[in-house]
Write a structure and sequence with these properties.
The complex is a heterodimer of chains A (110) and B (209). Chain A has 110 residues and is mainly α. Helix content of chain A is 94%, strand content 0%. The longest helix of chain A has 103 residues. The radius of gyration of chain A is 45 Å and the shape is rod-shaped. A four-stranded mixed sheet of chain B has the order 2-1-3-4. Chain B is rod-shaped and about 165 Å long. In chain B, helix 2 packs across helix 4. In chain B, a hairpin with a 5-residue loop joins strand 3 and strand 4. The chains are: A mainly alpha (110), B alpha+beta (209). At the A-B interface, helix 1 of A face helix 1, helix 2, helix 5 and helix 6 of B.
């Protein structure tokens, strides 16, 4: 009988040890998680910000690209207009010179 | 008896092991849950800033776009205006060349006489002094005749004398009262200057329309 009680007591001690070890391991898991939590927060935060910053760069790049396309169109149109102006000017050059001479040689009409 | 004892101890140890597993599992679940909450918190806080980053980028993109387009419009306008200006200047230069040629021709003398007479009339006659350039000073201009013409026109006695002072102009004349108080500049250079706006407008109209 005494032998039996001794066996049970030993089993209880062993069980207590198992629980204590498990509790210690659980504490360790919690502490490690707490330490990891800051990193997890920062990583998640930085990932979102980094993605947003990339999107921001892309938005601005796209806007500049669209505007440059518009710019080229406007400048090309202006070049065409300048060519037309030149063609007209070449054609009417002498007529304009004569008109100015007439204006200058008729001072009373000022 | 021994068998019962063995069963009891096994049961005690089995229960302890199950409890231990449960404790560890709970800790792991709690840790995972906390990490997930932290991750979500990070994402949530970052989303607030990300939203403002994107809003700012949209606004900056609009400014970039407007600025590039405004710059392009200005360049386009400048391209056209500079081309027009280039041709207006060419016409003015050619006009000056033709005026220089004209001053060397026989047709010039009556034109110069008219410029002198007109200036004298504007000044209201009286004692007047005439300033010409080196070349025009050598032309056979009859000042008495011109003075008479002015006198007849304004019915006021007029005298015209040639100044020793010479002008550096293409052609035309400067007439001033003898006291120098009133001056009428009828040189081509000054007529071009004072009628510049009108002349440029006329050139543009003829050249580009």
């Amino acid at each position: 009988m005494l032998e039996a009680l001794k066996g049970i007591k030993e089993a209880h001690l062993e069980a207590k040890k198992i629980i204590e070890e498990a509790t210690a391991q659980a504490e360790k898991i919690k502490k490690e998680a707490e330490q990891k939590a800051i990193r997890v927060y920062e990583e998640a935060y930085n990932a979102v910000i980094s993605k947003a910053e990339q999107e921001a760069i892309e938005i601005k790049r796209k806007a500049a690209e669209e505007a440059k396309f518009e710019l080229e169109k406007l400048l090309s149109h202006a070049e065409e207009q300048a060519k037309e102006i030149e063609a007209k000017a070449i054609k009417n050059f002498e007529k304009a010179v004569d008109a100015v001479l007439n204006m200058l040689l008729q001072p009373r009409d000022e | 008896m021994m068998e019962s004892l063995r069963l009891i101890t096994e049961m005690i140890l089995q229960e302890a092991k199950e409890s231990a597993e449960h404790i560890i599992q709970e800790a792991q679940n709690s840790a995972e849950s906390m990490l997930e909450k932290q991750r979500q918190l990070g994402v949530q806080r970052a989303n607030e800033l990300a939203s403002s980053i994107l809003k700012k980028a949209e606004s900056e993109a609009e400014v970039i776009k407007l600025s590039i387009i405004a710059d392009a419009k200005m360049k386009a306008k400048w391209t056209i205006l500079s081309k027009k200006e280039q041709w207006i200047t060419k016409v003015l230069n050619e006009t000056k060349n033709k005026l220089r040629i004209l001053t060397q021709s026989k047709e010039y003398t009556p034109i110069l006489e008219k410029l002198i007479t007109d200036a004298g009339i504007v000044l209201g006659g009286g004692e007047l002094e005439l300033l010409l350039n080196d070349h025009d000073s050598t032309l056979p201009i009859k000042l008495d005749k011109l003075a008479r013409k002015i006198s007849e026109k304004i019915r006021f006695e007029t005298k015209l004398s040639l100044s020793k002072e010479k002008t550096k102009v293409i052609g035309g004349a400067i007439v001033r009262t003898i006291n120098g108080k009133f001056v009428m500049d009828n040189t081509f250079d000054d007529i071009l200057r004072r009628r510049e706006k009108e002349i440029r407008h006329k050139i543009a109209k003829i050249l580009f329309e």
